[in-house]
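Dear Dr. L.,

I hope this message finds you well. Following up on our conversation about the binding site, I have prepared a predicted three-dimensional model of the protein together with shikimate-3-phosphate. For your records, I am including the exact sequence and ligand specification that went into the calculation, followed by the structure tokens. Please feel free to forward this to your student if that is useful.
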Amino acid sequence: MIALVGFMGAGKTTVGRALAQRLTLPFFDVDETIEQRSNATIAEVFRSQGEPDFRALEKVVVAELLGGPDAVVALGGGSVEDAGCRELLENATVVYLGVDSEEALRRINGGDPRPMLESNDPEALYKRRRALYESVADVTISTDGREVDEVVEELAATLGRLGSDA
Ligand code: S3P
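The resulting structure of the complex is given below.
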């Protein structure tokens, strides 16, 4: 089981999908699964139910996906703030996709709305989470200024060495 963590804009969904294809594994994205189940966008879930309910739903989906058949699973950027999610990650090979905070905010701009950035200082959020990503990571890789293919090839080689590409 391979789990991708990292800040918003790190490329978890894009890299996760490409990595899954490269390793011939299924790919699941926690946010997409939440959206399908609640028939609403993440921003709508935040607005109608609030962050605590979103986090509860997030933990259920993380538990289900990480407890399921082997796959590549991309988590939302905030999941590592929950101790229960961090514990669930102990059973997976965790890849931390690193990204510079400026680059992350550049990538986020123009993408899907990120409710957490409306109510939090992005830099403070970034700093607080960086240590958490590091604490759960088995493999850390930077995506700054790099093509998706390059990141995927390096990851496939590293995970192959770890013997955890399935
Ligand atoms: C969040 C990150 C988002 C999504 C939600 C909350 C966060 O996922 O789960 O908006 O707390 O950082 P991405 O990291 O895929 O943007």
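In brief: Residues 101 and 123 are 7 Å apart (CA to CA).

With kind regards,
A. P.
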